Amino acid sequence: MSFVEDPGHLSKSRLKSDLVAHKVELPPAGSKKEAYVALHLRHVDQTNAANFSSDEDDQELGVAGGDPGSAEELDPSALTDNDLKALLFKYGVKAGPILASTRAVYENKLRKLLQSAGEGESNEAENAVLYSDSDEEDVREENEDEEKELEGAQEKKAEALEPNQQQSDEMESWSAPSACSYSMPEHWSRSSRLDNDAEDKDIIVDQADTPKDSTCVKEIKDPGRDILKDLLADTKASPTGIYATPRRPIKGAALRPVQYAYPDTPVSPTTLERQEVQRRLVPVYVQVLVFFAVACILFLIFVNVEDTNSVVDLLESLSQGPDGDDERLDAASGEL
Amino acid sequence: MSTTSQKHRNFVSEPMADKPVMALAGIGDRLGHSLTEQGYDKAYVVLGQFLLLRKDTELFCYWLKDVTAANRKQADDCAQCLKDWCDAFL
Fold first, then answer.
1. Topology (CATH) of B6-89
2. What ipTM goes with this model?
3. Does A95 touch chain B (CB under 8 A)?
4. Which residue, A156, A222, B33, B88, has most beta carbons within 10 Å?
5. Is the pTM of this model over 0.80?
């Protein structure tokens, strides 16, 4: 409940950074925590009290982990370590220990996230229009899966039916006002997809076509002003922590086949080893079989060449032990 | 693959031991002095900071630009150097 910080519960480093943030002179280095607490109470809480009257509701919301949009008014430097960590976690950022040296970094990060969240909220509804054009991952799952598929279906359908420059130019012209770098990888990836996945696309188009024809047109009609904001906001606004950079080629969205930039199967080293061993096992079996076959042949030859007496001697001497072997060998060679 | 500098390759090729902070890729004389003044006189101290930030290159870049007058490229180079070193030795 307390967005009201209880300085006694804060760590010393936290108190120190708080005081620095509020431009209060730090007590001498060897001071006890109480000195920091006292200073904190005096200075920091004063400023907080001044803010409380106007921002109370917002701050309470922030504490309750409420709407990220309203948290824009939160001052990251006024948060406790734990609150800062929790807020970052809500944005998908797993924060390490928040110490004097790392605190500034995390506050910066939180500010950036709050800003982009503020921008992202207003454009959330129209994000789908762009994401289906450009995104390779399902970054936004909430409302946009359907819309994305619609958008993508329209694109793919257009491509499959008229796999020529016209459509891609059209697509590019939509996104042209936003970012040149954005449209280029699209084009590139589109052509590469055309080369590689002609078969799959037909299937995809068939699947995508059926339910979504009519609504497709609606979705695409309004790219205009939102594309720019969405595109530029995309790179940072990723609450799940998954970043969708525009430079990557279009892959894997909705029904599209996924092309990895890396080898097809992400293989771990242990899997590789196992595969290699398996390959080697085949010849090993062959070697073992050959060995036994040769042993049998030799035994048969030996048995057939020798007289039955020597065979009996052989069998007896085998049970006698190593000394018996020598005698047997002499006997066998003598008899030969 | 991005191209790496000779400094990067030198650093990542062996355990850093007691190398000075200027052995890090992206850290030259100016930045090196700046870091040394703040107490980050050896590469392993900067490594410590990198690890505290959970080996996140983006956060490390924020930190480096905050603490020194590093530009984006220098910070990126340093972060990438440390990350590669960690991948190899940690």
1. DNA polymerase; domain 1 (1.10.150)
2. 0.87
3. yes
4. A156
5. no
